[in-house]
Amino acid sequence: MCIRDSYKINLTLDPGQLAGSRITALTGASKFGISGDATWSAGSVTGDLKSFGGVIGATNRIIAEVDASTSINFEMEIDGAEGPGDVLVFYVDGIKVAETDGPAVTVEQDLEGSGVHLLMWEFKRGSGNAVIRNVAQ
Q1: Which residues are CB-contacts of 68 (< 8 A; sequence separation ≥ 6)?
Q2: 60: enclosing H helix or E strand
Q3: Where are the chain's structural domains?
Q4: Does the pLDDT value for residue 133 go beyond 50?
Q5: Which residue among 38, 42, 102, 103 is least crowded, i.e. fewest CB within 10 A of its CB?
Q6: What's the confidence (pLDDT) of residue 86?
Q7: Which architecture, in CATH terms, is 17-134?
Q8: How far apart are CA 92 and CA 59, in angstroms?
Q9: What pLDDT band is residue 7 in, cutting at 50, 70 and 90?
Q10: Is the pLDDT of residue 104 over 90?
């Protein structure tokens, strides 16, 4: 038996123009949102999405809605962690695809079919920062 979590996109936070354009470049999504108390920003040179600040133990998310077949290719890692407690997890349609508590993990995922796919990066903060790097560019 497979139990799937349900997620609704009901986020209205503006991630900022640069971070928003990086989310779109990474996923192809025109609908996305950010939740939690961390700030997500994109490096002007690298284009990496990186979380900054936020309460230790808090959960922060980026959720994107993709409504066409596409391929995504990225790395995700925890930067600057000084102990346990940081976890970054990537989900497609509520199913865990990848997880890291430190070292970079590469994700290559083909999203096929004519339906909508929900992508979610969920970061539980310890002492580090989550980094999402688009390697397809």
Answers
A1: 28
A2: strand 59-66
A3: 17-134
A4: yes
A5: 103
A6: 94
A7: Sandwich (2.60)
A8: 18
A9: very low
A10: yes
